[in-house]
Specification:
heterodimer; A: 2 domains; 14 helices; 3% strand; globular; B: mainly alpha; Cytochrome-c3 Hydrogenase, chain B; 2 domains; 3-stranded antiparallel beta sheet; 8 strands
Chain lengths: 408, 398
């Protein structure tokens, strides 16, 4: 087997990684919809999904089945090729961009081949990522145009204009980070953020030296929300105005693909924000012996969540829930114990902090959606071109000056 | 497609059919928009998709029976409709309603006003993308509906007001419920205002949008908060007091800007004023006293009397079989519904059924202003303008 792996590294190493990541990602997408519905519901004084499985945990499955079995209607006069291409393009591009994201510092071995915790570690990772995400606009524009319907057309127009203009601010806002790290490689950008101010404040780019990228981060996150067409910038699918925007005429699984594409890009953007501004997989605690106990945080968090789930689960209202929830709780406890093993202790640090930070960003996404009204089309464009773009250029100039000044 | 010279220099326009099935046309309104890009060049409002023939149906019903169909016109403020109709018929009959019933009517119509404004605020907010406000508003409205259910047995189609008074004695414990509302609601209104009033996006979406000048508003016959948002101080409750409104102390909020934001501020302030009126009414309502006028032959007699008095039984039979016949004549009675001036015209030919019942409904009149408000603006402003007019289609196509 080892010989085979040496001869065909792509088949033996990359392919299993891709399959595993794809599986994890698609499951995460499905449960992100559940997460969003739950969080928004609680913001709005509702319960959210509750019927399908305990706490609606099987809701994503039911949704998936429903999408598959719905009649797939193609509007008369639609440009068939473009109409079919659009959702594929949207979803495949959104998923592809996750390939360059590194999830942790450690290498692990598959069939004796040592490999990093990402599909590929490119030197121009950030550029590739932007290249892929910026192509996402084709999916939306084609969908709007090919449907041969007026609301999608307007939605497609809106989002093409929006994505193209926010792309600029998005790219400009990360230039500061690139200047500070001196590389496009995402792993190296994270590694450049190691270390602590005064021994305990992490030197993440957000509060980094020589120029804290607070402005850069705010610009990045705002543009990223706009780039992913999420509230309050969800003009392309503004339900109250354009019915469902560019995907009005899409039904069944093609609609689901747009839906998944949106959530996949949310995840990508959250990964990117974490990597660029929040130190990626780096723990927020110093790596000195006094702080060694923080290595047990993942284990403790899983175990505590598991215990809470067991305590809550045994009193759940349905029989099914009384079985499923404690089992899930036990699994989480088991995961906690596993994370506490000496062999695993170091390995789980990176992914744990990384995923935690992503989860926080995803929560903010949903929180914003539950709070803010929607921009108007012209205000949105004005906001992007007249405020975000100039500010991001100012950020670049200031960062460059600070770097030049500190180097002298 | 018409060939015209548009502001952006294009030669062709696109006609967009907004509605009757559209998420934010508040029912089944259809607006034909002529668009140049996203700029609205022309807006044609098409109504009639919810025609119920309520006015015509009333001619086939006795005066008492017709109350139930007035509920269904403005289904967000059924008690205001009841009140307009009952007051009109009472005017025709020259009937004096007991003070206790008048105060309860005032209290309930003010609660209706709050409930209706809550629905307006929620739907207006969700139209502009603020989802949560919608659900908060409906949470609060639920409390009001519970009160209506308590007194009348129905959440929405209450038909609680009767000619000459009220249908039933309000149940024990209902004032506590109302007191709860009076106590908790002001802080809830603060909550909505926290989310919206100073929100930059909300300001950008509503300020300077859907402009309606005072002249235009008066010229088009606009009334209610939509008129007061344009700086015209006109409220039927103040200028033509009915049902003892002159005994209550309240302000009429007026804003002069004439945009969606002004109307939003007016309505929110109105909800607070309504709470004030409800509070006063609670203090005024006597614990004991009749809830129906003493008018044999018009007001149904009490059950107990029917078992002991021959006349009561006869009146009961006559009221519920053939109804009562008011003298021939015409009356017009206006009330301030949550949407504006709601007028009820009743013509009697001396028979037990109205010869003609007509409602001057504020939504229908206010909707005329839409064209003025949106032409030359963007699609998103059309949504904001429809929302800010607070129309109810059931009332437009009665």
């Amino acid at each position: 087997m080892n010989e085979f792996a040496v001869q065909h590294p792509i088949l033996a190493v990359a392919l299993p990684k891709i399959v595993v990541l794809l599986f994890v990602l698609l499951t995460a997408l499905a449960y992100l919809t559940w997460f969003e519905r739950k969080v928004v519901a609680h913001i709005q004084a509702r319960w959210g999904p509750y019927r399908v499985g305990p706490h609606g945990l099987l809701q994503p499955l039911a949704d998936g089945v429903k999408f598959l079995f719905k009649e797939d209607v193609t509007p008369a006069g639609a440009d068939k090729f473009a109409y079919f291409l659009a959702p594929f393009l949207a979803l495949s591009l959104a998923i592809t961009s996750i390939a360059v994201i590194p999830f942790g510092p450690k290498e692990f071995s598959v069939f004796g081949q040592s490999t990093p915790l990402s599909i590929t570690n490119l030197n121009i990772g950030l550029l590739v990522l932007f290249a892929i995400t910026s192509m996402g606009v084709y999916g939306v524009a084609l969908a709007g145009w090919s449907s041969n319907s007026k609301y999608p057309l307007l939605g497609g127009l809106r989002s093409s204009a929006q994505m193209v203009s926010y792309e600029l601010a998005l790219t400009m806002s990360v230039v500061g980070v690139i200047l500070m790290a001196g590389t496009f490689n995402l792993s190296e950008i994270v590694n450049a953020q190691q270390g602590f101010h005064w021994g305990f404040v992490p030197r993440w780019n957000l509060i980094g030296w020589p120029f804290p990228q607070v402005l850069g981060f705010l610009l990045f996150f705002t543009s990223a929300v706009a780039e992913t067409n999420r509230a309050p910038f969800d003009l392309a699918e503004a339900e109250s105005e354009l019915v469902a925007g560019f995907h009005t005429e899409y039904a069944s699984f093609k609609f689901a693909m747009f839906f998944m594409a949106e959530y996949a890009s949310m995840i990508t953007v959250s990964c990117l924000a974490t990597i660029l501004f929040f130190g990626g997989w780096l723990s927020p605690f110093p790596q000195t012996p006094i702080w060694a106990w923080t290595h047990y945080i993942p284990a403790a968090a899983f175990a505590a969540a598991g215990l809470a789930l067991i305590v809550h689960g045994v009193r759940y209202i349905t029989m099914f829930g009384r079985v499923v929830l404690p089992v899930l709780g036990l699994a989480l406890c088991g995961l906690g114990v596993l994370c506490g093993q000496p062999g695993m202790l170091d390995f789980v640090q990176g992914p744990f902090w990384f995923l935690l930070k992503i989860a926080i960003f995803l929560f903010i996404y949903v929180w914003v959606r539950g709070t803010l009204p929607r921009f108007r089309y012209d205000q949105l464009m004005g906001f992007g071109w007249k405020l975000l773009l100039p500010l991001s250029i100012v950020n670049v100039v200031l960062t460059s000056l600070a770097i030049v000044w500190t180097q002298q | 497609m018409t060939t015209v010279q548009t502001p952006t220099g294009a030669e062709k326009t696109m006609v967009l059919n907004m509605g009757p099935q559209h998420p934010s046309t508040h029912g089944v309104l259809r607006v034909l928009l002529e668009l140049d890009g996203e700029n609205v060049m022309k807006a044609d409002v098409d109504i009639g998709y919810l025609h119920t023939g309520i006015e015509k149906t009333a001619e086939a019903l006795t005066y008492s029976q017709a109350i139930t169909i007035t509920d269904r016109m403005d289904y967000l403020a059924p008690l205001s409709n009841n009140l307009a109709y009952c007051l009109a018929v009472e005017k025709l009959l020259e009937l004096e309603v007991p003070k206790r019933a008048q105060y309860i009517r005032v209290l309930l119509t003010e609660l209706t006003r709050i409930g209706s404004h809550l629905v307006w605020l929620g739907t207006h907010a969700i139209d502009l993308g603020a989802m949560s406000v919608f659900l908060y508003c409906f949470r609060e409205r639920e409390e009001l509906l519970k009160i209506f259910e308590m007194v009348s047995g129905q959440r929405m189609m209450t038909s609680y007001f009767r000619i000459g008074g009220l249908a039933l004695e309000p149940p024990a414990g209902w004032t506590e419920r109302v007191e709860d509302v009076v106590r908790t609601f002001p802080s809830r209104f603060d909550e909505y205002e926290d989310l919206l009033t100073k929100n930059r996006i909300w300001l950008a979406r509503t300020q300077g949008v859907g402009m309606l000048s005072a002249e235009d508003a008066i010229g088009l016959g606009v009334s209610g908060p939509s008129l007061r948002g344009s700086g015209v101080d006109y409220d039927v409750r103040k200028y033509f007091p009915y049902s003892s409104y002159d005994e209550f102390d309240f302000e009429v909020p007026v804003r002069s800007e004439g945009d969606c934001y002004a109307r939003y501020m007016c309505r929110v302030a109105e909800m607070r004023e309504s709470i004030k009126i409800v509070k006063q009414a609670l203090g005024k309502i006597p614990a004991e006293g009749p809830i129906k006028a003493d008018a044999p032959g018009i007001v149904a007699p009490q059950r107990e009397k029917m078992k002991t008095e021959m006349e009561a039984l006869i009146y009961h039979f006559k009221i519920y079989t053939e109804g009562f016949a008011p003298p021939a004549g015409e009356v017009y009675q206006r009330v301030e519904s949550p949407r504006g001036e709601l007028g009820c015209f009743v013509a009697s030919d001396g028979s037990p059924k109205p010869y003609r019942m007509r409602m001057r409904t504020p939504s229908f009149v206010n909707l005329q202003a839409l064209q003025k408000m949106v032409e030359g603006h963007l699609i998103a402003d059309v949504i904001a303008s429809i929302g800010t007019l607070d129309i109810v289609l059931g009332e437009i196509d009665r």
